[in-house]
Amino acid sequence: xxxxxxxxxxxxxxxxxxxxxxxxxxxxxxxxxxxxxxxxxxxxxxxxxxxxxxxxxxxxxxxxxxxxxxxxxxxxxxxxxxxxxxxxxxxxxxxxxxxxxxxxxxxxxxxxxxxxxxxxxxxxxxxxxxxxxxxxxxxxxxxxxxxxxxxxxxxxxxxxxxxxxxxxxxxxxxxxxxxxxxxxxxxxxxxxxxxxxxxxxxxxxxxxxxxxxxxxxxxxxxxxxxxxxxxxxxxxxxxxxxxxxxxxxxxxxxxxxxxxxxxxxxxxxxxxxxxxxxxxxxxxxxxxxxxxxxxxxxxxxxxxxxxxxxxxxxxxxxxxxxxxxxxxxxxxxxxxxxxxxxxxxxxxx
Length: 349
What we know:
With 349 residues, this protein is α+β, with helices and mostly antiparallel strands. The chain folds into three domains: 23-185, no CATH class; 193-249, Arc Repressor Mutant, subunit A, CATH 1.10.10; 265-348, no CATH class. The protein is built from 17 helices and 13 strands. It has helices spanning 8-18, 29-35, 44-52, 60-69, 87-108, 110-113, 118-128, 136-145, 152-155, 182-185, 193-208, 213-220, 224-233, 272-275, 278-281, 289-292, 331-348; strands at residues 5-6, 39-40, 72-76, 82-86, 134-135, 162-164, 178-181, 237-241, 246-249, 265-267, 303-306, 309-317, 320-325. The protein has a six-stranded antiparallel β-sheet. A four-stranded antiparallel β-sheet has the order 10-11-12-13. A hairpin with a 2-residue loop joins strand 11 (303-306) and strand 12. Helix 5 packs across helix 11 (193-208), helix 11 (193-208) crosses helix 12 and helix 12 crosses helix 13. It starts with a strand and ends with a helix.
C-alpha cells in the first residue's frame, strides 16, 4: 500500500485537531494535558491560557487545584524546560530522558564541573529538602553553607528529580521557584528508559504528529540516535509530506478533512504549537516568523490564529486584550478575533 502523502494544509489541520484548537475538548484536564504533550510553562499564566483555548469548560482555579492536589506536576522535563505534565506521565517521561539529559549536561559543562563531586551535592540537596520544599534561594544558601559553589544547587537537578511545588508556578504566584524532591511529592514508579522513551514518542505523535523522527527527538531534547531503536520497534504508520520527507504517525490516529474550518484561537508565549512543527504545518507563516521569534523576544510573543495561522499578537492591558495584527484582517475576521478577545479578557478578569 502506498504511503499517504499529506499536504501542508492537511498537516496544519491535523496539528490543530490534535492540539484541540479546531474544537475545544470536553475531556478532563489531565487528559487534555496528556493530549497536548505537556504544557511548556516558563511563564506560568501561559499554561492557563493554553488550557482555556483548548478546553470547553476551563476556568483558572482548575489548573491551580490540579497542581496542588498533584494530579498534574510542574517540573523540568523535555528539553530541560519547565513543563506541566500529568502525574501518570511524569515518571515515564523523566525515565525516558534522565540519563541522556545528565550525560549531555556533564559533557557541555565539564570545565565548570571540574573538581566538584556532584553526587555529594545531590545528596546534600536531598537532605536539605527532606523536611519539605524550599525556595531556590534558600536551598542555594544551605548548599553554600555546606561548602559548595552557589550554582551547584541548580545543577543538582540533573541528578535529583525535582518538582516545582505549588503555590509557586501558578497564576496567583507566577515564579516557579519552590522546589521539592519528586519522590516526596509523587509516589515513585520504576520505569525503564525504553518504556519512558516510547511514551514520549507516543505523546509527541498524539500531540503534534505526523512527524519526522528528528522533530520528535528535538521536542524531547535528544538526538535521533537516542530514540531510533525504540521508534524502530514501535508499530508506527509511515507517511510522507509533499516534498517526499518521511513522516510517522500512531497507527490508530485519525486525520481531519484538510478543508475543515479553523476558528480563531489565542495562544500564549511558549505555546508548543508554534515551537514545534511551525514550518511543516505553516501555522506560523514564514514572513511573520521574525515578528514572533527574534533576538529581542526569544520567548516569542502572545499570538492569535486566523484560519489556522498566526495573524497577529496580543497583550492584556487595563482590563482589555490589545490586538496587534501582523496582516490585514477582513471585516469578518476582525469581528471574530474581537469576539474571542473579549472572552479572553473576561478569563483574565
